[in-house]
Amino acid sequence: MAGDAEGARSGGASRVPLDAEERAELDALRARLPERHRLRSALASLLIILAALLAPLSVVAVWVADDVADTDRYVRTVEPLASKPDVQAAVTANVTTAIMRRIDIDTLLSQVAPDKRPGVKEALGALNAPITEGVRNLVRQTVATFVASDAFRTLWAQLNRRAHAAFVGALTGDSGTAVRVEGDTVTLDLAPVVEQVKQRLVDSGLTVASNIPPVQAQYTLIESENVKRAQTGFRVLQLAGNWLPVVTVLLAAGGVLLAARRRRALATVALAVAATVAGLGIGLSVFRIVYLDRLPAKIDERAAGTVYDQMVHFLRESVLMVIVLGVVVALSAWLSGAGRWAVRVRAAWVSAIAAVRQAVGVSTGPVGSWVHRYRHLLHWLVVLVAAVVLVLWSYPTGMVVFWIALAALGALAAVEFLDDRRRPGGRTGSAA
């Protein structure tokens, strides 16, 4: 009613003035519009902030669920450790020490007749130490040879496959796997490695090794005062599961849809998510330094660093993937907008492809007319296909996102190349 009256006032010779009631109603509507706009903008900003804050937790939740629940993926994570020189050296030292605790002069003389042992032992005298050291060198060499072999890598993979819940055991305190948590230390039981080495020692001539009882050799995976804290956080992430990333995406989508300027909101949430996830990546590097700095002196720092890097390998790949995806989405939102530089970039893009088409002398004919008619649909189809490929890709990396974006860019270039923008009169339409 108020709108019709106002239109009558401005649209023709007969102007109908608003009465007091109509003017009050119009003023009330005008007053509510900014308030509603502010409320909507505030809610959109809140949703975007929540999405950005939940993004790092979502990345960690996906990593925990996939690396722990999927046996094959866990094995792929830890399998390369068997070939790392620092880890091989640490395993060699631990197994050698465990075996030598069971071998001394008395063990070496176990095959000598009991009535002759005192005499032989007395005759050896000062040779006890050199003999023991010689045996230690033999054991160390045998262990090192085995640890560097394919047999050890196979055994390492089998050990971790049988205990594919090892990382769960480390973070939940489950003692039913090959990984155990005692206090603030996470250790891996290397008893199967000792058994293999014992047999190799027997084959090399040290037959007394067959008398060595079962030996518990343990390799420290993690030793930190933060293990207990990590157990609590891990349980929370287990409860969150894979729904946390869905909630994060829904929050981001809600913030974009509520925003008055949706392209700008999309670019903002993409960059905000990329920034917070980048913070997670920085945090992983900082925590590595702090963790290694606080290791006890008995722990091999280089081996511990190698284990840490391998354990978070897929997490770091996920961090890089989200960063690249955020940058690609933000750049796409900016380029599709009405900003001065975005328009210039699009114009340069169209001009460059038109120059290529003119240089090669290709006539698109009816195909070009059809492409021009459905160009917007084709553009959205390219975006949709790229999104579906990314969603269906198993464990995409930053490079996967880059190549998908590059392929989509190539498809858009093909559409532009085939687009015949000619109009009646020989003129060329502007870029759409």
From TrEMBL:
Keywords: Membrane, Transmembrane, Transmembrane helix
Source domain of life: Bacteria
Transmembrane segments: 42-65, 243-260, 267-291, 318-336, 377-395, 401-418
UniProt protein name: Putative integral membrane protein
Organism, scientific name: Actinacidiphila reveromycinica
